[in-house]
């Protein structure tokens, strides 16, 4: 490759500012070039260099220019501290300044963001900004470059560091490359994150975005002033103080010099989309360089030509060819070897500039700048592609062409050929009288080897290895064509090596003079073969070496007879020629987009072909055809070409020898058969073979009769020869099965063997199937014996019946089978099931007595009743039924039933997984009441799984206990929050309860009244919001629970109830939360209005602790318990009112059974005592002090313990005897390992009860909630059919079967595992009020 100046310009100096071109850039479409020269910005036409605009906006030298990615604007900056933004029409639209001169600028390749740098700061501007964002820097910025994706900006500094910053200007990383200033840098456009930087110590460095060194440093030998990647990302152009522009690979390997100038080259930029470069120099000159494309195939590599039009900067193609091995250069530093037949490829990484390539047999020569490396194949296998380094010639050898032989390399230098051994010793040199245009290593006849040489003097010489004298073959009339400096070269095929004895190879050399020489490597004297009249472009020898084909510079193809020196063929419009490697009289040539094949003296056979033909080889192993190797542009293609036309022409002449030569053995055999009667040729062959093996004459005559179509006579002759089976076989082949059956029966009678009859039936069935008579085929397959020989045929019958959906016939087959034929019955059942023939499949499986398969059938058909009936008799199949049944229920949204099925089937984990998924969905969809119910069920599962009592719990049981506590707590929170959420999101508000509402029993009226009174009553909302806030103030709320909603409702209800202190707290809390915009104005207004209210809450609202009688504030920020004694408040889970209950514990020596027995034993003593005292006093006022009466002082002992804060109340047997049943509520758990909890009712006037979920309620509100929802609160347990029934009271007889009491129980179905407690009401799984 060589470049030439496309255009150049040196503008005159203006305004006394020195003319220096410090920077230039191209418009993204490559149409314009913008350069900063002196204090002007010049815009040129990039094609011809016409000056389009000269912009005057700067007062001092312009240091940098940059174009935006969309091509609509560009920017310039200079020593006057100013940045000017220009439109693509050369109109200034914006100007901004820095405090110091502008050192570098770069537009973001994705957005319109512009980065400008000075010695003290970095400026970032974009059209969307009103001002320039500036960032201070610690060292002078010398250069800028954005990554291809526009996310990061690299800043090269004078202190030798590179700062990587994001689009906002924040530093993300820093690369410390050394102490020398980083003067220029650029990102690789196709390898993201690779940064090339040039430092003023003459080093080219490569780093990644993370600061890791990508490859080793490259010593340039000069200070780089500018570097730029080509758009392909494969090459880098570098300019600097050596006044040259150099070309490097992307990893820093030097390739070549692009341009040389008279002064420093400050800027070099590739032209987008056109791959040529523009540069700016110290003397103010601007130039663009272009290259002429020359494809070199191991021939005239790096040759060039001048042209008067602009061409792209494309590198030469360097390659070599030997038979079916093709080697070419890739990425300038690699060599790829391709096997043209198998299409295998192998890459050799040379890690240096590959200048030339040559291939010969097992040798590969690669010339690098300072050495030649010889590779050889690892084995002698023709398909082996493993090359290994054999030797190296450590010399810098210059040549135009490289050729390799078995032991030498040959260098071509204009008129000179030099022969070097693999050790680097120069053994021989030939000096010719004309420039060499073409060279080919050719194997000469016998032991001779020769070179064909075409000279500029029109002579074609041959040089033999054993002859010191060149021999002139042809003297052409015009020069032999080859790539020369004043012509645009055309691609030509590479030098080829086709054989010869070891160390005695020969070369054919074509000269520019037209001479063709033969040169042998062991002979100093060339031999001239032909003296052609024109310069040689291409040469090739025929397979026998008796004919020479030449293509000259006039595009003529000529064929010479080397023995007689006669011209035997000539044609025009050719650019390349190649002989067939196996057939003497066949060659091909290309030209004008056509491929022409010449065979003997027959007319040309032509077809379309783009490129240059370089090889013509027979296709081994194919019936007809050849492979042609074609060079198209820079790639080698393999094209298959049929040669039947040539064969048929030889056959028409009866020239069968040449027909065979034109084709391979198979083609020649078919050509001979073409002119004979094939049937009789086959008959003769069979007859000769039969006689050779002693076959009886009768059998030979039978075969002759059969060939003649006389089948009955042939059958009789077969029978006479004792081969009845052959007669049967003949008729079977003829598909005459009736005749075949007759002879088969004859065979069975004479031989006593029924096998042949069965075989005949089998063949007839196969034939029926072949002609698509499937019904008959199936019937005949069934008739076959079910022996091992025909078992597969029986399967075939079943498959045919199933494929055609003949189910009635198939079930008849099943009914006819024995139940021991399990394999066939299973196959039939499978077909029935696939076809959804449920009844037939059931019948088949019942016959097989296959229980599991029958259950599987029921499951597939969703016959669940049948499946469970069968499961009752076979419980071991539980998994096969319950698992699919649970999946079926889940797919039909029957999740509760699916959970039950999983549990009964032994899959508790799957049951829990369903419940967890339902819980998650409910929370995400704001169905908080459902979420509460699901959490409650999960907590019950965890509680029931505990296997030991509290004092002996294992780690797993403690984990389950903690899980129960966590889940039950969430159930309570979501249950309460559902009331808040409904109040916030409901579009309608429930009316206030009307005291004058007439009593009615109508269901809808009762439903509306109960809903208004319970869930939306202001006091209920007030209590719920307080309960939630006290639970959640000290921890993170669960998912979906909004503190803003809770506090908002609390603030409104507090204002309404007169709790102004609490309202003030709530509104202050709201100011710290994110609120909906619709609430903000209201909250702000109420926050002001509440300040006008009293600072305290209404005393009627303050809760009193039923244990210590302490008045508590409405909101305890530490939790929902008494501020004095620490006893938790026990709330109704309907109205969330504080209930008069106090929890107590039993003495360690009292069991739960003892407590139930002791309760109320002495409950009547107190009333008898008072009656006796009244009779004694007879109306007088008497004060009795009886300190020894322990029974009378029991209440004082209980009350005394209540007064002790932060301690539990413990009762003994005497206290239990004194307590009434109606005073005590017992809460038990659905797990016998968990002890009961006991609560004392402090206000007997309030009828209390415990629900089946374990929460406490007032009786009336519980009944109303049951009527409203149709199920129990919280637990969602179903109501009994008889409805709600009051169980009894203290007045009158005690309840049965317990002792009298005031406890109330609602007849609701309890959860599985809960124990019914008579006087204590229901059961629970909650730790409210003391825990376990």
Largest sheet: 10 strands, mixed
The count of strands amounts to 63
Terminal Cα span: 93 Å
Please estimate the helix content: 25-40%
Please tell me the overall pLDDT. Answer: 77
Poorly predicted segments: 293-312, 443-450, 479-498, 662-672, 786-791, 990-1014, 1184-1194, 1281-1332
Strand proportion: 25-35%
Describe this structure in words.
There is one protein chain. With 1332 residues, this protein is α+β, with helices and mostly antiparallel strands. The chain has 31 helices and 63 strands. The longest helix has 31 residues, at 955-985. Strands 41, 42, 43, 44, 45, 46, 47, 48, 49 and 50 form a 10-stranded mixed beta sheet that branches. It has a 4-stranded antiparallel beta sheet with strand order 1-28-27-26, with no helix packed on it.
């Amino acid at each position: 490759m060589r470049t030439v100046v496309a255009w150049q310009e040196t503008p005159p100096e203006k305004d006394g500012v020195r003319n220096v071109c410090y920077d230039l850039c191209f418009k993204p479409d490559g149409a314009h070039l913008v350069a900063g020269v002196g204090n002007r910005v010049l815009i040129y036409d990039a094609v011809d260099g016409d000056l389009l605009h000269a912009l005057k906006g700067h007062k001092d030298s312009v240091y940098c220019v940059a174009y935006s990615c969309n091509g609509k604007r560009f920017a310039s900056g200079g020593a006057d501290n100013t940045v000017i933004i220009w439109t693509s029409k050369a109109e200034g639209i914006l100007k901004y300044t820095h405090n110091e001169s502008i050192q570098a600028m770069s537009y973001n390749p994705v957005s319109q963001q512009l980065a400008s740098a000075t010695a003290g700061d970095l400026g970032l501007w974009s059209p969307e900004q009103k001002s320039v964002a500036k960032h201070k820097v610690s060292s002078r910025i010398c250069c800028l470059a954005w990554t291809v994706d526009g996310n990061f900006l690299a800043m090269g500094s004078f202190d030798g560091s590179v700062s990587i910053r994001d689009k906002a200007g924040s530093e993300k990383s820093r690369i410390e490359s050394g102490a020398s200033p980083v003067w220029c840098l650029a990102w690789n456009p196709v390898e993201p994150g690779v940064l090339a930087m040039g430092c003023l110590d003459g080093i080219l460095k490569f780093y990644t975005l993370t600061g890791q060194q990508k490859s080793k440093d490259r010593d340039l030998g000069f200070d780089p002033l500018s570097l730029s990647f080509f758009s392909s990302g494969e090459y880098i152009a570098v300019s600097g103080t050596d006044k040259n522009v150099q070309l490097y690979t992307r990893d820093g390997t030097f390739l070549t010099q692009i341009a040389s100038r008279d002064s420093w080259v400050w800027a070099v930029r590739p032209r987008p989309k056109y791959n040529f470069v523009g540069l700016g120099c110290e003397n103010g000159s601007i130039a663009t360089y272009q290259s002429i494309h020359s494809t070199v195939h191991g021939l005239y590599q790096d040759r060039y030509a001048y042209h008067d039009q602009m061409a792209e900067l494309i590198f030469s193609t360097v390659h070599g060819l030997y038979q079916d091995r093709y080697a070419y250069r890739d990425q300038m530093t690699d060599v790829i070897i391709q096997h043209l037949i198998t299409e295998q490829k192998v890459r050799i990484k040379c890690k240096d500039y590959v200048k030339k390539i040559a291939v010969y047999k097992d040798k590969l020569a690669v010339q690098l700048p300072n050495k030649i490396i010889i590779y050889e194949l690892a084995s002698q296998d023709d398909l082996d592609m493993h090359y290994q380094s054999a030797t190296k010639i450590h010399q810098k050898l210059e040549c135009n062409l490289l050729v390799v032989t078995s032991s030498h390399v040959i260098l071509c230098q204009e008129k000179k050929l030099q022969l070097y051994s693999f050790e680097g010793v120069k053994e021989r040199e030939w000096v010719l009288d004309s420039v060499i245009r073409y060279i080919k290593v050719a194997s000469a006849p016998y032991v001779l080897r020769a070179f064909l040489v075409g000279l500029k003097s029109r002579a074609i010489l041959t040089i033999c290895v054993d002859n010191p004298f060149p021999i002139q073959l042809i003297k052409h009339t015009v020069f032999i064509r080859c790539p020369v400096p004043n012509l645009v070269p055309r691609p030509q095929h590479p030098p080829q090596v086709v054989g010869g004895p070891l160390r005695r190879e020969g070369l054919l050399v074509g000269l520019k003079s037209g001479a063709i020489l033969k040169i042998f490597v062991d002979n100093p004297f060339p031999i001239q073969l032909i003296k052609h009249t024109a310069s040689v472009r291409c040469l090739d020898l025929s397979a026998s070496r008796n004919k020479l084909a030449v293509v000259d510079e006039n595009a003529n193809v000529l064929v010479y007879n080397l023995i007689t020196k006669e011209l035997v063929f000539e044609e025009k419009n050719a650019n390349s020629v190649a002989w067939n490697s196996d057939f003497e009289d066949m060659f091909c040539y290309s030209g004008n987009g056509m491929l022409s094949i010449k065979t003997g003296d027959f007319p040309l056979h032509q077809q379309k072909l783009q490129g240059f033909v370089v090889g013509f080889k027979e296709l081994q192993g194919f019936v007809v055809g050849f492979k042609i190797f074609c060079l198209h542009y820079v790639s080698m293609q393999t094209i298959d070409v049929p040669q039947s036309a040539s064969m048929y022409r030889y056959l028409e002449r009866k020239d069968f020898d040449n027909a065979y030569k034109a084709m391979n053995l198979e083609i020649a055999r078919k050509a001979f058969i073409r002119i004979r009667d094939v049937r009789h040729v086959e008959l003769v062959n069979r007859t000769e073979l039969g006689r050779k093996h002693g076959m009886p004459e009768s059998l030979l005559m039978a075969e002759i009769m059969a060939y003649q179509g006389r089948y009955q006579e042939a059958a009789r002759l077969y029978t006479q020869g004792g081969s009845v089976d052959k007669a049967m076989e003949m008729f079977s082949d003829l598909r005459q099965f009736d005749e075949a059956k007759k002879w088969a029966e004859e065979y069975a009678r004479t031989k006593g063997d029924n096998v042949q009859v069965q075989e005949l039936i089998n063949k007839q069935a196969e034939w029926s199937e072949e002609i698509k008579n499937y019904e008959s085929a199936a019937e005949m397959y069934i008739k076959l014996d079910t022996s091992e020989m025909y078992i597969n045929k029986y399967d075939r019958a079943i498959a045919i019946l199933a494929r055609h959906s003949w189910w009635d016939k198939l079930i008849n087959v099943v009914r006819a089978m024995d139940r021991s034929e399990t394999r066939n019955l299973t196959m039939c059942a499978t077909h029935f099931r696939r076809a959804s023939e449920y009844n037939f499949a059931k019948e088949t499986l019942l016959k097989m007595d296959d229980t599991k398969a029958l259950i599987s059938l029921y499951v597939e058909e969703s016959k669940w009743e049948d499946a469970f009936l069968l499961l009752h008799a076979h419980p071991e199949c539980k998994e096969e039924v319950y698992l699919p049944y649970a999946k079926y229920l889940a797919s039909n949204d029957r999740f509760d039933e699916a959970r039950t099925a999983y549990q009964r089937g032994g899959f508790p984990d799957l049951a829990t997984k369903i419940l967890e998924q339902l819980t998650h969905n409910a929370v995400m969809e704001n169905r908080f009441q459902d979420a509460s119910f699901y959490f409650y069920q999960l907590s019950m599962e965890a509680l029931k799984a505990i296997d030991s009592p509290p004092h002996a719990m294992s780690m797993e049981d403690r984990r389950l206990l903690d899980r129960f506590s966590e889940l039950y707590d969430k159930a309570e929170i979501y249950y309460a929050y559902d009331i808040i959420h409904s109040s916030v999101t409901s579009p309608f508000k429930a009316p206030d309860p009307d005291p004058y509402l007439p009593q009615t029993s109508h269901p809808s009226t009762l439903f509306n009244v109960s809903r208004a009174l319970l869930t939306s009553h202001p006091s209920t909302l007030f209590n719920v919001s307080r309960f939630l806030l006290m639970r959640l103030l000290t921890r993170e709320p669960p998912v979906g629970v909004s503190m803003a909603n809770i506090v908002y409702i609390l603030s409104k209800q507090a204002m309404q109830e007169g709790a102004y202190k609490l309202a003030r707290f709530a509104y202050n809390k709201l100011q710290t939360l994110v609120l909906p915009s619709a609430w903000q104005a209201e909250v702000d207004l109420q926050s002001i209005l509440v300040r006008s209210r009293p600072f305290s809450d209404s005393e009627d609202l303050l809760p009193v602790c039923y244990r210590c009688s302490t008045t508590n504030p409405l909101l305890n920020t530490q939790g929902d318990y008494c501020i004095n004694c620490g006893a938790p408040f026990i709330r109704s889970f309907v109205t969330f009112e504080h209930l008069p209950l106090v929890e107590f514990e039993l003495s360690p020596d009292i069991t739960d059974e003892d407590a139930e027995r002791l309760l109320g034993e002495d409950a009547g003593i107190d009333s008898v005592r008072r009656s006796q005292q009244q009779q004694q006093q007879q109306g007088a006022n008497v004060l009795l002090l009886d300190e020894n009466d322990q029974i009378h002082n029991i209440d004082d002992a209980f009350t005394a313990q209540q007064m002790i804060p932060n301690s539990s109340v413990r009762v003994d047997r005497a206290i239990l005897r004194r307590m009434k049943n109606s005073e005590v509520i017992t809460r038990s758990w659905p797990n016998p390992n968990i002890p009961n909890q006991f609560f004392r009712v402090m206000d007997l006037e309030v009828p209390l009860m415990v629900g089946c979920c374990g929460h406490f309620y007032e009786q009336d509100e519980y009944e109303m909630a049951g009527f409203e929802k149709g199920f129990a609160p919280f637990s969602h347990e179903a109501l009994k059919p008889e409805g709600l029934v009051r169980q009894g009271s203290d007045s009158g007889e005690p309840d049965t079967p317990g002792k009298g009491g005031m406890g109330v129980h609602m007849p609701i179905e309890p959860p599985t595992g809960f124990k019914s407690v008579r006087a204590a009401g229901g059961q629970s799984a909650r730790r409210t009020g003391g825990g376990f």
